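DM from R.C. (forwarded with permission)

"hey, sorry to bug you on a friday — could you get me a structure for this? deadline for the figure draft is monday and I only need the backbone to look sensible"
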Amino acid sequence: MAYLYGEDKTALLRRLRRIEGQVRGVARMIDEDKYCVEILDQITAITSGLEKVGLHLLSDHIKGCVRQSVKAGEDEKVTELVGAVERFLKA
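My reply, with the result:
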């Protein structure tokens, strides 16, 4: 099955690679005993980046998979979506 985020796959992967670099940077900052607030600022940026990726994927899921499921009269994807949103908000 091809997922609908395929159109944005390049942008999502680019953002995730940037986040990956930021995480490595935080590890380096800790290793180098950098100031705590600077590290916390980087962690905030990482968290924000991941949330944006998650929201993008959630939006694509609603517009694609869930919409198709509802049109077909199936409730499974709606139930799955509710669980996914609950888990996303707890993170």
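R.C.: lifesaver. The mean pLDDT is 91.
me: no worries. The two ends are 27 Å apart (CA to CA).
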